[in-house]
């Protein structure tokens, strides 16, 4: 873990200001979401990136992660399901 050598105090409302250099490096803009994790005695902040469906390309909080790291929304899963059914139907007619 790389230290920035910067100290910040927590204010009365529990807020901490992220240094501008850090916001610039991570391309964090005002009003963007940050994920907060706890790992033992550390607080980990990460720029929030919603997962994207491999089929529809749309971002969603309800992405299913399948084998091979494929992420699908329910809509994307339905599209694939229909395509598989059609291909199975065609191959059984041969």
Short description:
With 94 residues, this protein is an alpha+beta fold.
Can you put this structure into words, describing what you see?
The protein is an alpha+beta fold and 94 residues long. The chain has a domain at 51-93. The chain is 28% helix and 23% strand. It is built from two helices and six strands, in the order H-E-E-E-E-E-E-H. The chain has helices at 20-25, 74-93, and strands spanning 34-39, 42-47, 51-52, 59-60, 64-66, 70-72. The strands form three sheets. The chain has a two-stranded antiparallel ribbon with strand order 1-2. Strands 3-4 form a two-stranded antiparallel sheet. A hairpin with a 3-residue loop joins strand 5 (64-66) and strand 6. The chain starts with 19 loop residues before the first helix and ends with a helix. 5% of the residues are buried.
Show the helix and strand layout.
Elements: H1 20-25, E1 34-39, E2 42-47, E3 51-52, E4 59-60, E5 64-66, E6 70-72, H2 74-93
Antiparallel strand pairs: 1-2, 3-4, 5-6
């Amino acid at each position: 873990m790389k230290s920035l050598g910067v100290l910040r105090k927590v204010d009365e409302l529990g807020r901490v200001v992220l240094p501008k250099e850090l916001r610039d490096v991570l391309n964090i803009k005002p009003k963007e979401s940050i994920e907060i994790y706890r790992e033992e005695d550390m607080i980990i902040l990460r720029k929030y990136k919603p997962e994207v469906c491999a089929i529809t390309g749309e971002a969603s909080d309800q992405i299913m992660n399948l084998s091979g790291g494929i992420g699908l929304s329910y809509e994307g899963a339905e599209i694939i399901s229909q395509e598989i059914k059609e291909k199975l139907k065609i191959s059984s007619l041969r």
